[in-house]
Amino acid sequence: MTDILKKLNIILKDRKDKNSKESYVASLYEKGFNHTCEKIDEESKELINALKKESNERIISEAADLWFHSLIALSMKNLSSDDILEELQKRLGVSGHDEKKNRSSR
Questions:
Q1: Mind listing the domains of the chain with CATH numbers?
Q2: Are 40 and 48 in contact (CB under 8 A)?
Q3: Which residue from 31, 39, 88, 85 is spatially nearest to 62, judged by alpha carbons?
Q4: Which site in 53, 80, 89, 93 is 20 to 30 Å from 22, CA atoms measured?
Q5: How many Cβ atoms from other residues are within 10 Å of residue 67's Cβ?
């Protein structure tokens, strides 16, 4: 399944140079980082609402929207899903309590 993340990384890079009238992703790049962060905030609220009140199909749809917009924001910072997957890999086998304590000491 990580193949889809690799494909999305390629698409996001490609869309940086596309016409914003032809590509939703390109329009987000044009509107800028702050706008994309506002979209992430909106999508996270929609996911929370779906988790509380809606069907699994809606939850999955809203989670996909949140992930997608997060990937766009990451790409605006020259980061990708690979960076996130690497971080998650580091955390495997580490207690969540220990990981959180280690984060606060950084």
A1: 2-79 (1.10.287.1080)
A2: no
A3: 39
A4: 80
A5: 17
